[in-house]
Amino acid sequence: MAKRTFSTLEGFLIFLLVMMTAVTVALLSLLFITSGTIENHKGSGFPVTQSPPDTLGSTATQGSTLTHGSAATQTPPVTSTPEPPLFQNFSGYHIGVGRADCTGQVSDINLMGFSKTGQNARGILTRLYSRAFVLAEPDGSNRVAFVSIDIGMVSQRLRLEVLKRLQSKYGSLYRRDNVMLSGIHTHSGPGGYFQYTVFVIASEGFSNRTFEYIVTGIVKSIEMAHQNMKPGKIFINKGNVEGTQINRSPSSYLWNPPSERARYSSNTDKEMVILKMVDLNGVDLGLISWFAIHPVSMNNTNHLVNSDNMGYASYLFEQEKNKGYLPGQGPYVAAFASSNLGDVSPNILGPRCVNTGDSCDNANSSCPIGGPSMCIAMGPGHDMLNSTQIIGEIIYQRAKELYASTSQEVTGPLAAAHQWVNMSNVTVWLNSTHTAKTCKPALGYSFAAGTIDGFGSFNFTQGTTVGDPFWEILRDQILGKPSEEIKNCHKPKPILIHTGELTKPHPWHPEIVDVQMITVGSVAIIAIPGEFTTMSGRRLREAVQAEFATYGMQNMTAVISGLCNVYTHYITTFEEYQAQRYEAASTIYGPHTLSAYIQLFKALAKAIATDTVANLSSGPEPPFFKQLIASLIPNIVDRAPLGRNFGDVLQPVKSTYRMGEVAEVTFVGANPKNSAENQTHQTFLTVEKYEATSATWRIVHNDASWETRFYWHKGLLGHSNATMQWHIPESAQPGIYRMRYFGHIRKQELLKPAVILPFEGTTSAFEVVAH
């Protein structure tokens, strides 16, 4: 290997990295002497002691609990909310839908997804929502809940806490087997709600403020769906979506067998699956759509919290169905859930060298001049927000077409299956005579390279299959050496960080993982705890459908629901793993991860098909850590400039605007994260129109509207400004308008606890006129 040289800048950055890492490790060691303090979330609807497992394809290292409806093995309710009587004499399902705000803090927190230092939230483009769907059989005996959440991914800590609160209110009605939580995978939502060290570091600390906000929103959406249940019917439709995707690792995809690739017309999954829900009178209730695409139209230069392209599709569908309601309000709920999006990008113009304009669609995603940092994929719009809307609009329109034309009714019983599995130690049967094993978690070099949607640091490149002595020495000095066992298990991945062997202040990656499936008649929804690539998803769906058919359940539709229950990065095929691009380097349980999941999900399918779910054990319970690394950003009191008050106008609006222009105002502001603690106000802004006939102001937009922007500008010593924009649409009605600002200040007097108080600000009236 040729000797590697470093520029002055690289040398300085490496020195800075070493010093920061050393300081961080030292601080963590001091702060978390009790780092081993954990508790298991007992009583998530199941007893601690379970029946011994039967074989069902599981190995001795895998414990499983699968339940079919309200099996006799469930824990009695602790505090049960009385059930409203259900009308039973009909054909279909009881259907309940609910939507609740789960935005969390929109400042002083890292956005979760790109793991880019400095990509902190500085305002809001749209609210984030949890959308829940509760289904029950006519007699109420079996039920399931599916929840799609506008966050990057569901963390294990979120799920455990949600289940704990549901059990407290409903007893054993909602449990870990029949409640499925799925993140849409926006990269523009707040982090801070994780417990494993890698994700805590990526979030720049744990934020109990945001964690509580998200948990509360998820639980509230389920409560709303529970209360709104009514008899109805479900219909299914499928169709391809064109013009929204590219495979961002096409060279990896080509490692899959030619005979397998020949069966498919594209290197991405173009099929969208939708479930349409209506009441017995045909009144629309809700929609769930699954489609494989990364919500990264908003790139890693963005600082506004939003739900990206899939959230925009939900926004359009709900606005269409909830006429006269503000965004986030109204009875109709439309979820655009994630699927096997691991290698799928919405940036359809493809990777280009931003300095030369040449294509960099190569195995290393690198440019001749500037390397990987110059290789970036662009979306179809003139900026990232426009690209978000273009992609989201296409997805929405296709869903609308499928929704309008659907006629195939979904019928049959509801079932649910779940197990906790130690994914670092699964024996995989490759054939009837040979086995392999999964590995303790580890990340490869190409993980640090990032992707064409967001490059990494220090000039790491994708496709790296050989370690670098410099980084190995640095890692060994700071984190210790990886064992020979973990290095051999992960080959050909060169290990950058041996996370499965790091336990301070807490384990760096999960070992205990949720594996879950729910069936709604002929639809099997597979909860994957990460990001499956295109071909990985195809293999899993095919295997599950075949397993159902083997045991008498023909013509099942297997749907992959992504980013569910616990996050474990990526899952590539064995062949794609050999290429060691970003997705493979991030397949943390080694080259046989996909085979292990296929084996596990086939066991769930068999158990449901043969009605033997109650015979399997639960598996090892995951931990719930009591102490976590707090955010390094302190809470300080807010201060207004001398002679000014919070909410005072600093830069006023103009007196007149035309449609298509941007109305903008700047106020004396306060830190928006205060509003995640004190939710006196449910929005940071409103746009209001004066109604002369009633002499009142009517709200026409809030901060969930895609026409508005809320920017927070952080100053020194608690000073800050807030800028609001209204991008006036062509559909706006001429008339008199005003904009209002709603915030909260942190105030603290000497020797007294801090209090958070609401305030408001209002612009002068302005006129909107036609062109």
TrEMBL record:
GO terms for biological process: ceramide biosynthetic process; ceramide catabolic process; long-chain fatty acid biosynthetic process; sphingosine biosynthetic process. Keywords: Hydrolase, Lipid metabolism, Membrane, Metal-binding, Sphingolipid metabolism, Transmembrane, Transmembrane helix, Zinc. One of its GO terms (molecular function) is N-acylsphingosine amidohydrolase activity. It comes from the Eukaryota. Zn(2+) binds at residues 185, 294, 531, 570. Its EC number is 3.5.1.23. Its cofactor is Zn(2+). Residues 47-81 have a biased composition (Polar residues). Belongs to the neutral ceramidase family. PANTHER family: CERAMIDASE, NEUTRAL CERAMIDASE. This is Neutral ceramidase. It comes from Suricata suricatta. The lineage of its organism: Eukaryota, Metazoa, Chordata, Craniata, Vertebrata.
